[in-house]
Design a protein that fits this description.
The protein is mainly alpha-helical and 69 residues long. Helices cover 58% and strands 0% of the residues. It has one domain. 0% of the residues are buried.
């Protein structure tokens, strides 16, 4: 049974019997200290490019289908 615990995914703790779940929790390494990640700031240029890309991806195929017709 111990060999199986070495390859268990931490997600399986949710569906394991309580004694195996406790053993699996014991085998999970301690988390590394986190670092603060600053939120990504959205510039006007990035937002504009996003909208242009969405419009081109929507209208481009529509105009091509209309042109072929």
């Amino acid at each position: 049974m111990e060999a199986a615990l070495d390859v268990l995914s931490p997600e399986l703790v949710l569906v394991l019997p309580p004694e195996l779940a406790a053993e699996a929790r014991r085998l999970v390494p301690d988390p590394l200290p986190g670092t603060y990640v600053r939120p990504w700031e959205l510039s006007r240029r990035a937002l504009f490019l996003f909208y242009v890309t969405c419009l081109a991806g929507t209208l481009g195929p529509l105009l091509l289908a209309y042109a072929v017709r």
